[in-house]
Amino acid sequence: PATSMEELVSLCKRRGFIFQGSEIYGGLQGFYDYGPLGVELKNNIKAAWWRTNVYERDDMEGLDASIIMHRQVLRHSGHEATFSDPMVDNKKNNKRYRLDHLVKDQKADVIAKVAEAMGQSAENFPAVVAALNANPAQASEALRAAGVRDPFSGEVGEWTEPKPFNMMFKTTIGPVADDESYGYLRPETAQGIFTNFKNVVDSTSRRLPFGIAQIGKAFRNEITPRNFIFRVRELEQMEIEFFCTPGTDEDWHEKWLEARLSWWEAQGVPRSKIEILDVPKEDLAHYSKRTYDLMYDYPTLGHEEIEGIANRSDYDLGSHTKNQSELGLVARVEENLDSIAKLTIPHPETNKPVVPFVIEPSAGVDRAMLAVLSEAFTKETLENGNERIVLKLKPHLAPIKVAVIPLARNKAELVDLARSIKNDLQKLGLGRILLEDSGNIGKAYRRHDEVGTPYCVTVDFDTVGKGEDASLTDTVTIRDRDTLAQERVKISDLSSYLQAKLR
Ligand code: ATP
Questions:
Q1: Atom 28 in ligand 1: which residue has the minimum CA distance?
Q2: How far does residue 435's CA lie from ligand 1's centre (Å)?
Q3: ipTM of the complex model
């Protein structure tokens, strides 16, 4: 695995996985663009998630809802009032920080002092954050007493009392900009699932338990976007809302935890690198009854959230439904006089209308990419003493499945044959097959090691019957990325050989 974020960032830029957004104008903080290889890896991760969670189950449906949503949705979901992070300003230089990030970036002794002032142990950082977020006045005093420094200037700051900062992006809809004509870019894809609950139930005849899966962009105006694609303002999420009968929710919560850990394992992110955080009560999101955060051990950053698995109880459907008072809701919700729909489903035993409970596994695509890249990243010393960087990606995630390389790029005969082999392999539907006719063979191998191409197929003079050994006519060399073994295979066997290896 990678040992630092830096080596990942450098590989991603050098080989075309990820670029800074709006880079030619100096860049825009918190926005990234996925390059030729990044888009393939991202698509492959999303496809793997969809396959496991929609196609390979019998209790799931898919959805792709719109990004901009009616302001009433985000009002009744609770996001207008509570989707905020506490921030503090340094009065000395007007820099603004997210409270927990500010504390996390301090030296160990300062963190210990803050923890102590909050009546917590520094060992349990999530509890420190929860206490800071819950007690603004005490937090402000703790920052002062501990001598918390400004990460930008390095000097002890003069800190304001923490204030909530709403992270939603608001936008004007239509030609008139008045007080009513605005909507929000969704801060989570989940709300599109809740607002379509009735549509999906009515059009598919689903009964409890069942889930709806969605992959899409979400937007958060993070106070301090940072750590490459770990914390961005435009992100992508893979979310499931799994609806179940009240009372069965805790069981389903455990089942989903298991299912999700095993999915990560299949993507090359082992359980041993993921800590399960049972989120402290004080730190739960406004909708949550209980949440497990999967904390992956990122290079340089340490354990940080890659996925949250929340028990959202009947909070969301309960908040968005009409006739709330007749439905025996468990969650405490605000009155809703705007919704025109009753968001219930027949109880599987009594057949009476019930608002189901919801388990939500919510993973970030960007954070998934970072973890997958980090696990695949390998630096090896070869037998000849040379060092190579190789991305040992699972074949189903590799951006390029096979590179077909003519040994000499100025020999039309070799290039034409390589192109025709590429075209044939492309038809197998394995993903991207690349005709690699730039640079010499050594460079091509190095490049494909670094981008994780599982197999290179080389067309040489023997292949076209112009080499030393006539018995090699119509055969090519296949080089294995991980073992470096080279094998001679008949062109006519190539498809079945690669299909078996890349399935
Ligand atoms: P954090 O505490 O790191 O801000 P969160 O608890 O706000 O994350 P959730 O609301 O649980 O995150 O979102 C679900 C998932 O979406 C996260 O596990 C993460 O993978 C992803 N995600 C959330 N915010 C961002 C972001 N700013 N950049 C990239 N991915 C994000």
A1: 231
A2: 38
A3: 0.98
